[in-house]
Amino acid sequence: MTRQTSPSHRIGLVGTGFIASGFARLLVNHHPDLQLSAVLTRRPLNSTSGFPFPERLTQSVQELLDKADLIVECSGDVLHATDVIDQALKAGKPVVTMNSEFHITTGSYFAGRGLLTEAEGDQPGSIAALREEAIMMGFKPIVYGNMKGFLNHHPTPEEMAYWASKQGISVEQTTSFTDGTKIQIEQALVANAFGATIAQQGMLGPQTTDVSKAAIELARRAAESGQVLSDYVLAPGNAGVFVVGTHDESEWRALNYLKLGDGPYYVLVRPFHLCQYEIIKTVRRVLNGGGILFNNSSAPTVSIVAIAKVPLKAGTRIDRAIGGFQLRGEAARIADAPNHVPMGLVQNAVIRRDIEPGQVLSFDDVDLPDTLALHIARELYA
Q1: Residue 295 lies in a domain
Q2: Which residues span the domain enclosing 361?
């Protein structure tokens, strides 16, 4: 006789897109001790045909919180995530996210106000997990690296529609990946999380056919500057993340035997990241008392500036900030970008005065919707 497992923890989910749908399927099909209790959506309940468990949908944040012991937020929306996470933490619910856009914009406000952690699976979470492993093995990280296969700062709507359809993800996601905004967000989050920095606005991003060689060059740059760097390599055909570290000089011979090279810089590579399928590892970590994996920290030093791709006339509405065709984002040191408006805030903003291509937007250049995220960002960055 097969014993039935009763769910022991109720998981509330925010979002119904590609990431959220995949996580929901994983939870229901492979983790019977966990219950997908409620799923928050802003879409009409009769228009979510792509979500696998429509009977669990709700448009009520309070219902989500009442039915959940832990919240997983992966809406990809900065303003919405800020509102929901604020309410969840006030209600004493731990929150696991896959939303680097939220963290780099307003996440630091919530650090220390409850249990809030980004999840393993997206590149920043994969770097965080690899970092933990590296430190346990005695390595001292000097570079936190990401791999990108393709970069085009000015993709066209037609190109993005084609690739979005081919890959089965949204045009907005495809655009933010292609124009580099997403990797800038990810590595800014990594820098803040682990007390690292960036070498320059936009990072270095060397193009290479040899990831390890380029990673070691980044390590040399970090050593020269005396700072741990967060950066990426543009390496077509490669995927994953890496950490470059040093180790005790006495371990040179053993590490060489184990095929890590002559040192003093050793490259550890994780050649995949599986997004929605790996969120569960961080959920289990929290439920088992393991605490946070990482977040944007309470004292960020790197932010994302919004750069105009095209001329923007006064009165223009920004129809889509992250993943749109009007702006792209770059990582910048906060100290070097006074009064910049974080890119995640610019959704639905109206341009006050003419902006030229390549110009970085400031708070003085835009009228922003009155949101909780705006009040938080002014406190953090203005």
Answers
A1: no
A2: 302-381
Q: What is the pLDDT of residues 202-225, one digit of tens each?
A: 999 999 999 999 999 999 999 999
Single out the residue of 114, 157, 166, 90 nearest to residue 319, CA to CA: 157
Gap between the Cα atoms of 359 and 365, Å rounded = 10
Element (H, E) at 141: strand 140-148
Asked if pLDDT for residue 382 goes beyond 90, the answer is no
Burial class (CB in 10 A: 0-12, 13-18, 19+), 321: buried
Same domain, 32 and 82: yes
Q: Of 48 and 279, which is predicted with more confidence?
A: 279
Stretch 131-153: mean pLDDT: 97
Q: What is the pTM of this model?
A: 0.95
Contact yes or no for 23/53 (Cβ under 8 A): no
Query: Percentage helix, strand, coil, to 5, in the chain?
Result: 40, 20, 40
Nearest C-alpha neighbor of 68 from the set 146, 5, 11, 128: 11
Sheet holding 34-40, edge to edge: 57-58, 34-40, 9-14, 70-73, 95-97, 116-118
DSSP 317: B
Are 234 and 363 within one domain? no
Q: Nearest-CA neighbor of 96 among 122, 60, 67?
A: 122
Share of the chain above pLDDT 70, in %: 98
Q: What is the pLDDT of residues 184-205, one digit of tens each?
A: 999 999 999 999 999 999 999 9
Domain identity same for 151 and 39: no
H-type helices in the chain, by residue range? 18-30, 61-66, 78-90, 100-102, 108-110, 123-136, 157-167, 171-178, 181-193, 211-225, 252-257, 279-287, 372-381
Integer Cα distance of 307 and 346 in angstroms: 11
* Helix boundaries (H) for 142-298: 157-167, 171-178, 181-193, 211-225, 252-257, 279-287
Tens digits of per-residue pLDDT, 285-320?
999 999 999 999 999 999 999 999 999 999 999 989
Q: How far is CA 75 from the centre of its chain?
A: 12
**Please, which residues have CB within 8 angstroms of residue 173's CB and are 6 or more apart in sequence?**
18, 76, 164, 182, 323
Within this chain, do residues 178 and 89 fall inside the same structural domain, yes or no?
no
Cβ atoms of residues 370 and 356 within 8 Å: no
